[in-house]
Amino acid sequence: MIRQKIRKSITFISFLLYPITMFYFSPYLIIDAASKGLVSGSFIIFVTLFLSSLLVGRFFCGWLCPGAGMQNPLIDMKVVTKPIKKGAWIKFLFWAPWIVLIVFVFIISGRLKGIDFFYSTHNGISISDPLAYIIYYAVITIIIGLNFIFGKRGFCKYLCWISPFMIIGRKIRNIFNYPSLRLKVNSTLCNQCRKCNDSCPMSIDVCDLVQKGNMEHYECTLCGSCVDTCPQKAIKFGF
Ligand code: SF4
Ligand code: SF4
User: Fold this and answer.
1) How far does residue 182's CA lie from ligand 1's centre (Å)?
2) Angle at 208 between CA 207 and CA 214, to 5 degrees
3) C-alpha–C-alpha distance, residues 110 and 107, integer Å
4) Do 185 and 177 contact (CB within 8 A), yes or no?
5) SS3 category, 110
6) How confident is the model at residue 142, as a pLDDT?
7) Side-chain-side CA neighbours of residue 53 (13 Å)
8) Paired sense of beta strands 182-185 and 235-238, if any
9) Alpha-carbon gap, residue 21 to 11, rounded angstroms
10) Is 122 helix (H, G, I), strand (E, B) or coil?
11) How far is C-alpha 188 from the geometric centre of its chain's CA atoms?
């Protein structure tokens, strides 16, 4: 379980750094910068995450995301226990118009004028004035609040504007089926205790995947909770 402690510590540190990094994950600033013909830091980060997902799927969601750092403690403290089963596609209803808007704004802004990685930050720091603080607390309230409304990692499932990039990258990886970070399973070892289901922060029916012998699930963040929980060692990381 030391691996899970390390993982949760990393995401919590990422959460603590969120006042610095928030604008590098901002969907709004991509559009705002695009209207001036600029490529912002958040645009570069999102593209980087998409490219990373071609090799490591949603590893970022499980191991690095500040949003995970906010939500993991709610699960660990059993403040939020309700699992989510359906409707994860809803986030694409918010994501698709946003992508169309980015392309539209880039087109109407004319030619690309440059790259500003630190766009709208102050010396690279996101939260540097009172208005930014209001935005910061509003975002945190939304992320945490959705857990209480919809259940475990409710924000990731229904609203996250970053995960669709990685879900699409993962689908592309699956089509071409080249070597990449995945979960591997030995179904014959499983005794169907369902401890993996209880441990999964994304409310995936892991035991069902194990029975099918295919651990591929678009909501899997490769957090490894099921790997570390399974008493039979039926699930492993593989490349
Ligand atoms: S925890 Fe392991 S043994 Fe138990 S159901 Fe899951 S895969 Fe099977
Ligand atoms: S299936 Fe396993 S690795 Fe994937 S999110 Fe659930 S617990 Fe984490």
Assistant:
1) 17
2) 100
3) 6
4) no
5) coil
6) 96
7) 26
8) antiparallel
9) 13
10) strand
11) 31
48: nearest Cα among 174, 165, 160, 207: 165
Nearest Cα neighbor of 76 from 143, 8, 26, 123 is 8
Could you tell me how far CA 68 lies from the centroid of its own chain?
7
**What is the assigned CATH class of domain 181-239?**
alpha beta
CA of 212 to the centre of ligand 1 (A): 13
Give the Cα separation of 3 and 5 in Å (integer): 5
pLDDT at 88: 81
Widest CA span of the chain, in angstroms? 61
Pocket test for ligand 2, best of 11, 212, 223, 230 (most atoms within 8 A of CB): 223
Measured CA distances, 99 to 28, 76, 170 (Å): 11, 34, 18
Q: What ranges do the domains of the chain cover?
A: 2-178, 181-239
Rounded to the nearest angstrom, the distance between the alpha carbon of 206 and the centre of ligand 1 is: 8
Positions of the chain with pLDDT lower than 50, given as ranges: none
Predicted pLDDT at 83: 79
- The whole-model pTM stands at 0.93
Beta bridge partners of 236: 184
Residue 183 and residue 229 in contact, taking contact as beta carbons nearer than 8 Å: no
**Which residue, judged by its Cα, is nearest atom 4 of ligand 1?**
193
pLDDT of residue 53: 98
Rg (CA), the chain: 19
What the block records as the tokens of 22 is: 């928030």
**Residue 235, strand partner residues:** 185
Summarize pLDDT for 48-79 with one digit per residue, the tens.
Answer: 999 999 999 999 999 999 999 999 999 999 98
In the block, tokens 């593209």 appear at: 47
